[in-house]
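Retro notes, item 3 of 5
We never archived the inputs for the S-adenosyl-L-homocysteine complex last cycle. Fixing that now. Sequence and ligand:
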Amino acid sequence: MTDLYRLLPEEMEEMIIELGQPRYRADQILYALYYKFPKSISEIKQLPSIFRETLVEKGFAIGSTKEVHRVVSKDGETTKLLLNLQDETPVESVLMQYPPKKMFGHPRSTICVSTQVGCAMGCVFCATGQMGFERNMKAEEIVGQVIHFAKILSDKKQHVTNIVFMGMGEPLANYSETIRAIQLLTHPRGFGLGQRNITISTIGIISAIDKLSEENLQVGLAISLHAPNDKLRQWLVPTAGKESVKELIDAGKRFFLKTGRRVTFEYALIKGVNDSIKIAEELALLLRNNGSHVNIIPLNPTAGELKRPSRNNVIEFERILYNSGINCTVRVEKGTEISAACGQLRTDVLSKYNNERN
Ligand code: SAH
Ligand code: SF4
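Structure as it came back at the time:
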């Protein structure tokens, strides 16, 4: 089976021509896929029924995701979906909405997509890391998550404004499918989102960061640093190399030089682990004068022992970086109460959904 959502517009055209159809059929399909969100080929009514049948006979299909469960936060701004992929594998995706700045504007609607089922990196503070690795997701499955939310939004006359690759899994460990998904989502004849409205977050696979900078994409890059020295980083990120801190900072510099896009360093702040004044000063020294931006993410609770620091500690940590001239923000917490925040996504404990339902 070939999912129509897998094909880039040029590939769609090739396929159409091979089937002896006029080129404009490709645009009819693309329009339907990215504006009408059909669940099956039979729903693409713009196409003659005989051609729809041919597509099915030739093994094409729309492998749409099936929504198994939906949780919405009390303020209505965060929605977490449990989606079943074609082979019934469950994954989680999140929509975060931010009220419009202008009175009659649209809200900012950011989709946080998963790129792998589980994750092999095993970060000690991350629920996905703790469930282990199951499989890579296909580009069409990554795109499918965005399409699912796009349909929900379009019913409310809203649309997707941003996509962050910060859900389950390590996007750069599933490199080619992640890049294909970005191409599909940003192609002017595909989903058509601006490249600058996409951010990839990575635990820091150096060779893949360098490769990404050669892709001629204007996507944003966030590198999960979490510690100013290798000893601490290796404890938090067991798969980190012996000199990963320096290597990541250098890779970030190269990415900026090549793409002109500033890199954000993400820093999950954990009580009593990486939140002391001494560590803040060490981090400040490390990042001073390199023009990067630090995004502090006060730890979101998962099943483990690790805790979030107090609000005062977070402010103090931020102040030390700020006073050293480092551009620094604290991530607005969204969706914690529905376990939809950073690092809280996991799908191996499905009984929790049943409990939520009862
Ligand atoms: N694998 C990628 C992207 C997914 S995780 C990465 O690690 O960057 C997205 C972000 O959430 C990362 O910065 C990650 O460090 C952070 N994160 C993971 N677990 C967290 C937790 N329990 N609390 C806060 N942030 C967490
Ligand atoms: Fe994987 Fe990112 Fe979680 Fe680490 S933080 S286990 S890399 S998803």
